[in-house]
Amino acid sequence: MIAKFFKTGALALVLGLSPLTAATPVMAQSTFEAVITVNNAPITQFEIEQRARFLRLLRAPGDPNTLAREQLIEDRLKLQAAQQNGIELGEEQMASGMDRFASQANLSGAEMIKLLEREGVYEETFRAFIRAGASWAELTRARFGPRITVSEDDLDRARAATGKGGGVEVLMSEIIIPYTPQTQEQVEATARRISETASESSFASQARRYSATRTAGSGGRLPWTPLNELPGGLRGIILGLAPGDVTEPLPLQGAVALFQLRDIRETDVSDPEYAAIEYAAYYIDGGRSDQALARAARVEADTDTCDDLYGIAQGQPESVLQRGSKAPSEIPQDIAYELSKLDPGEVSYTLTRSNGQTLVLLMLCGRSQSIADESTDETTADSAEGEAAATALSETEMLSRQIGDQRLASYADGYLAQLKAEARIVEK
C-alpha cells in the first residue's frame, strides 16, 4: 500500500525533475489552521499542500490536491485505529519503512529525504506518509491475519486461474445495498441475514428486493466473467468459495456487497492481465434520489465515449468530472468491481460518495493489457527434475502468499470504509 504511488513515477524524481518552487520561508498563519477535522483531529492547509507536492513528485494519477485531502483523511483514520489498538511505531520501524520505500529507486531513506527537501517537501511530510502506511499494515495484519487460511482447494483454483494453457471464468450473483448514516445499521443487519442464505433462489429473491444494481431485476445474476477482470481483493475471496456459497458482507464506501458463486469453469483461452484501466467518474448531487438517477440516465443516453463527458461537464466545477488511467491495484475496490462489469463506453451508477449524497456515474474508457514474456530457457535433462521441484515449491508459496494478501487487502479496504463511514469528518 505504501509503495503504490512510488511505482507510478517516482523514478523520474530520482532521474531529475524540473525544480519546483521551494517552500516559502514566511507563511501566513492561516496556512497552519485546520481546514479538515477527522474525529476532531486537525488537518491543516500546509499538510495538504505538502502532500500534494509530494504526490506531484511521485506523479500519482489524478488531481494532487484532491488526492492529498483524501489520503490525509484516511491517514488520520488509520493512525487513530492503530493507536486505539496499541500500535505505535518506533524509530527503527520508521527508518526501515523509509528505507524500503526509497530502495525502489536505489536510495536509502536518508538520501530520499534529502532529495525531497530539495524539491520543497519537508522530512515530516515523508515521515507522516510512511507512519500512516506502516501502522495500518501492522494493524491489519494483527487484526485480520489470524482469519486468513489458504487451503489446497484455494491453491488448485489459483493454479487453474494462472495457468498458461487457459483461463478461469466465474458465474456469480450480486447484491449491493447502499446506505446513509441513518440507515447503515439496518442495512448491515439485513446483509448479515442474507449472507446466511444458502440457496440460489432465496439469494435471487433478496437481490430483487434490496439490490441497487441493474441486475436486481434478474435476481442479481451476472454472466460468465473472466476471473482476472475482478478486483484483486474480490478475486481471492471468490476463489475461496464453493458453488452455492455466499460471501460475508463486504463493506464498500456507502454500501454493503454480497456475492454468491454459482459456478466456475476453465476455458481454453487465457485470461488477459491488465496493466492499466482508464475510466471516468462524473459526480451528480442528490445521491440515489429520483432526480439524480434521472440525470444519470440522461447522461448515459447522451454519451458514447469518455470524451463525451467533457461536454456534459462543461461549465460545471472541475471537481464534477475525474478521468485517469490507473493500475488495477490502485483503483478503489468498489469502483474496480463496477468497472469489471463494463465494456468501453458503458456506464454504471450504482455507487455513491459523501455519505450517500453524491451519485457516481462511472464510464469505462478502456483497458490496457500486459504483454507476457513468452520466451523460455532451455535446461538440461539432468537438472530438469530438480528445477521443477524447486519451481513447484516456490509457486505454491507464491500463490499462497498472493491469495492471503488479496484477502487481507479486501479485509483492510472494508475496515477502512467502515472507519470512514463512522467518522465525523468536517471539511471547511
Compact overview of the structure:
This protein has helices at residues 10-15, 45-58, 64-84, 91-103, 109-118, 123-144, 152-162, 184-195, 200-210, 232-239, 290-302, 308-313, 333-340, 381-422; strands spanning 34-38, 41-44, 167-178, 225-226, 250-252, 255-267, 274-285, 321-326, 347-348, 352-353, 358-369, 425-427.
Describe it.
- By secondary structure, this protein is α+β, with helices and mostly antiparallel strands.
- It folds into 3 domains: 6-145, Triger factor/SurA peptide-binding fold (Orthogonal Bundle); 152-271 and 397-422, Chitinase A, domain 3; 274-368, Chitinase A, domain 3 (Roll).
- The chain is built from 14 helices and 12 strands.
- The protein has helices at 10-15, 45-58, 64-84, 91-103, 109-118, 123-144, 152-162, 184-195, 200-210, 232-239, 290-302, 308-313, 333-340, 381-422, and strands spanning 34-38, 41-44, 167-178, 225-226, 250-252, 255-267, 274-285, 321-326, 347-348, 352-353, 358-369, 425-427.
- The strands form 3 sheets. Strands 7, 8, 9, 10 and 11 form a 5-stranded antiparallel sheet that branches. It has a 4-stranded antiparallel sheet with strand order 4-3-6-5, sandwiched between helices.
- A hairpin with a 4-residue loop joins strand 10 and strand 11.
- Helix 2 (45-58) crosses helix 3 and helix 4 crosses helix 5.
- It is globular, with a radius of gyration of 23 Å.
- It starts with 9 loop residues before the first helix and ends with a strand.
- Residues 1-29 and 371-393 have low confidence and may be disordered.
